[in-house]
Amino acid sequence: MRFCAAMACALFACTPAHGVNLIVDGGFEGQPAGVGGYAHHAAGTSFDGGAWFVLGVDILTIDTAYSVGDAPPLVFKAHSGRTSLDLTGTGNSSPADGIFQDVATQAGQLYTLGFYVGRAMSSGSVGGDYPSAATVRLSIDGGPVIDFVNSDTILSGIAWKPFRYSFLATSGKTRIAFTNGIGNDYLGLDDVSLSAAPEPNVWLLSILGFGLIGGRLRNRRVRAFRTAG
Q: What kind and span of H or E run contains 128?
């Protein structure tokens, strides 16, 4: 038993904490907008106490009960929780509108970023205001811009689509930036997550470690059976 316990401790001591969300306030709930409303946040400011900062001109935090138009109204329901973002800002003000967060990372470690992009569509009185797909632009540490396009639709609401992107960190701090792409007058963003991806040698070590533990336990059972016989 001491062998098994020691082996398990050694195994997990050398295994990074994977699956933990490294993003602070990934759901944008740190400072929610008023019920049924929205809040405007200018460039250079933080809207949740210092986790996310605004780029470009401005962005909006939107309450999940906010709606516009009628017959039927378009309801800007968040993917989860009370709050989501509109990266187009006031009146789709700038293609540079967006947010960023600096995250502590480990150089050489592979990370997986997850997020949801929202597209607005309405069959009511504002139906013609959101004619095209929603495009968010992602940049990691100021690197190349990558477009993620949500062409999904849901009548009189927000169609949320999940995306994932993996990257290799190059330093102890990585800037995650999302900006407004070209197209829809609304660009929703919600539930951002970042976690370290298991490295191949960690998986190999896990398999070998548990194999040794299992083999040790089987040998103990065999010896116990022979002794009892």
A: none
170 CB neighbour count, 10 Å cutoff? 14
Is residue 211 helix, strand or coil? helix
Question: For position 7, what pLDDT does the model report?
Answer: 40
Residue partners of 178: CB distance under 8 A and separation at least 6: 87, 98, 99, 100, 115, 136, 137, 138, 189, 192
- Find, among 53, 74, 56, the residue nearest to 65 by Cα: 74
Residues 188 and 228 in one domain: no
Q: What is the CATH number of the domain that holds 154?
A: 2.60.120.260
User: How far, CA to CA in Å, does 195 sit from each of 47, 114, 217?
Assistant: 23, 9, 33
pLDDT digit string (tens) for 176-193? 999 998 867 899 999 999
For residue 111, the cross-strand partners are 167, 196
pTM score: 0.81
Q: d(Cα 187, Cα 61) in Å, to the nearest integer?
A: 11
207 and 179, same domain (yes or no): no
What is the number of structural domains in the chain? 2
In angstroms, what is the C-alpha Rg of the chain? 24
